[in-house]
Write a structure and sequence with these properties.
The chain has helices at about 5-15, 170-180, 310-320, 375-380, 495-500, and strands at about 25-35, 40-45, 55-60, 65-70, 80, 105-110, 120-125, 135-140, 155-165, 190, 200-205, 210-215, 220-225, 230-235, 240-245, 250, 255-265, 270-280, 285-290, 345-355, 360-365, 370, 390, 405, 410-415, 415-425, 430-435, 440-445, 465, 465-470, 475-480, 485-490, 505-510. By secondary structure, it is mostly beta strands. The longest helix has 11 residues, at about 5-15. Bound molecules: 2-acetamido-2-deoxy-beta-D-glucopyranose (NAG) (5 copies). One 2-acetamido-2-deoxy-beta-D-glucopyranose binds next to strand 15.
Length: about 550
């Protein structure tokens, strides 16, 4: 079909791939349900009756057509963490781009996993729905003729891990946040919706190698993944094939995705897979069983946890690099685009803060705490509705002073090449995500960033990804090529903080307003707020 790909784009794609992208059609029902992920029954959000929701298996350039029926009593949206949605922020499923699907209604997302490979996930983006489920994995496989830099594994396991509440559901958490109070730390950790230790198992054969795709779909905690007695070979980070390095365990911050290969080279027994919290006063963990086929008994293998988790984690983060000779979604090497030689046109310094405003807890970036407008910003832009937001309502650099509330939108020109420095003066690990893009994580270190910090940047083989951690009292610097027109959410992945304002929209704008740069409003787009009575012009279908 490919009805939103016109002429040239379609031709280019076909010539390069020699295979036509497929349409993958899904029909999903979102409902409340009762499940017992930890023991006592809890209210959860299910997709087609399950947590995690259905897993999407796609190939580069496939079109995903996902009809989402909202059978709950609340407005609902799904967003696609790490899927770049080229030219198509209308399908991003966050409130700044899309009207919520009302209770009892449905909306059909049409998105293309264009020029991407790797491991990602979807999640519900409104309110605190994420705390009750609604998430699932997305795999984008390489097209048949594109070489993958490791042999086909004997099996491919998905691990959606995340912290979880058993004393609160998404409604009670929202009620606490709406009163301006901060929520307590989550109570436990789930693996694929299961929080009972050793109630999940993965069967493997001795001598074989398996791929584990791990995403942190949680709310607050950085998590460590370890398979006792086995080493992890890191191969992929959010769509980038990495230099394959051996790790004893792997830190995965909120919103991040990784793939590791594990060779089953031990005596055939049962071994523990341990997922545990990092950088937290709460030591939470959950175990799963790595079960060798035909094994007799279990092996007790001690954990290999580091003495200093911060130094371990920083060292590990710095060691993750792109394999420049491996291919990504295309046959050419990942190192053929020299990001380190492009001139920076602008530097943003983004600093997170939190304080009481009118006696209510708020969080902010550069002193601005995001409040949603009555109309999705992207629709206000499309219909030219004035007064919904102001470009420039959040500054490029931190400012002295308190926190002010605003519908924060930062303007940027299409094709700018920018540097973003995330400065974290807080004592928690931050995690930032940018929709619509991957960025190169060129540097991170303890302390305050200064111009001199640029001397330690990795301008050769930094990893390109969409979510980065910022350590306590530390900075992280990224480069972004703003080649995707649209309205893109930049947010803290720490969910309570993003809900209380730690986010803004980056409006990447092209004055040409050409269909080559951005697809038009989808014909089936839901309208709401001040866009309710507008007529759709010039749409697809
Ligand atoms: C709702 O679902 C029906 C089919 O069940 C479909 O025809 C219709 O286009 C969907 N509505 C939207 C807004 O996507
Ligand atoms: C990088 O990718 C190449 C090409 O696929 C592969 O042969 C090589 O083993 C990889 N190197 C590392 C260190 O991962
Ligand atoms: C463990 O999982 C099984 C299903 O695989 C389930 O029936 C059982 O209730 C679970 N045990 C606990 C303690 O939750
Ligand atoms: C090993 O793991 C499997 C799968 O979870 C389980 O059925 C079996 O009882 C375990 N064996 C031992 C000795 O723990
Ligand atoms: C609670 C609620 O509003 N439920 C509605 C959800 O949507 C279905 C149809 O998709 C309706 O039948 C329910 O009444």
């Amino acid at each position: 079909m490919g009805w939103w790909l016109k002429g040239r784009v379609w031709m280019t794609m076909t010539i390069i791939s020699f295979v036509q992208a497929k349409d993958l059609v899904f029909d999903w029902r979102v409902t409340y349900g009762k499940l017992s992920p930890v023991g006592p029954p809890q209210t959860v959000i299910l997709i087609n009756g399950q947590i995690p929701g259905p897993e999407i298996h796609s190939v580069t350039n496939d079109n995903l057509i996902i009809n989402v029926h909202n059978d709950t009593d609340e407005p609902f949206l799904l967003s696609w963490n790490g899927v770049q949605l080229r030219k198509n922020s209308y399908q991003d499923g966050v409130y700044g781009t899309s009207c919520p699907i009302p209770p009892g209604k449905n909306y059909t997302y049409a998105l293309q996993v264009k020029d991407q490979i790797g491991s990602f996930f979807y999640f519900p983006s409104l309110a605190v729905h994420k705390a009750s489920g609604g998430f699932g994995a997305i795999r984008i496989l390489s097209r048949p003729r594109i070489p993958v830099p490791f042999p086909e594994p004997a099996g491919d396991f998905t691990f959606l891990i995340g912290d979880w509440y058993f004393d609160h559901d998404h409604k009670s958490l929202k009620a606490i946040l709406d009163k301006g109070r901060m929520v307590p730390l989550p109570d436990t950790v789930l693996i694929n919706g299961n929080g009972v230790t050793f109630n999940t198992s993965f069967t493997v054969y001795k001598g074989k190698t398996y791929r584990f795709r791990i995403s942190n779909v949680g709310l607050q905690h950085s998590l460590n993944f370890e398979i006792l007695g086995h080493t992890l070979k890191l191969v992929e980070v959010e769509g980038t094939h990495t230099v394959q390095s051996m790790l004893t365990s792997l830190d995965i911050h909120v919103g991040q995705s990784y793939s590791v290969l594990v060779t089953m080279d031990q005596t055939p027994r049962n071994y523990s897979i341990v997922v545990s919290t990092r950088f937290s006063n709460k030591q939470l963990f959950v175990g799963s069983t790595l079960h060798y086929y035909n094994s007799k008994g279990s092996d007790f293998v001690p954990r290999k946890q580091p003495a200093n988790e911060l130094d371990f984690s920083i060292k590990q983060a710095r060691s993750i690099r792109t394999n420049l000779t491996a291919s990504g979604p295309r046959p050419n090497p990942q190192g053929s685009y020299h990001y380190g030689r492009i001139k920076i046109s602008r530097t943003l310094i983004l600093e997170n803060s939190g304080t009481l405003v009118n006696n209510k807890q708020r969080y902010a970036i550069n002193g601005v705490s995001f409040v949603p407008a009555d109309t999705p910003l992207k629709l206000a832009d499309y219909f030219k509705i004035k007064g919904v937001f102001k470009v420039g309502s959040i500054p490029d650099k931190p400012r002295i002073g308190g926190i002010r509330l605003d519908t924060a939108v930062m303007g940027a020109q299409h094709k700018e090449f920018i540097e973003i420095v995330f400065q974290n003066r807080d004592n928690i690990v931050q995690s930032y995500h940018l929709d619509g893009y991957n960025f190169w994580v060129v540097g991170l270190n303890k302390g305050t960033w200064s111009h001199a910090s640029r001397q330690e940047y990795n301008l050769k083989d930094a990893v390109s990804r969409s979510t980065t951690q910022v350590y306590p009292q530390s900075w992280t610097a990224v480069y972004v090529a703003l080649d995707n027109v649209g309205m893109w959410n930049l947010r803290s992945e720490l969910w309570a903080r993003q809900y209380l304002g730690q986010q803004f929209y980056l409006r990447v704008y092209s004055p040409i307003q050409s269909l080559r740069d951005e697809y038009p409003l989808p014909k089936n787009a839901l309208l709401c707020g001040r866009a309710s009575n507008k007529k759709k012009l010039n749409t697809t279908h």
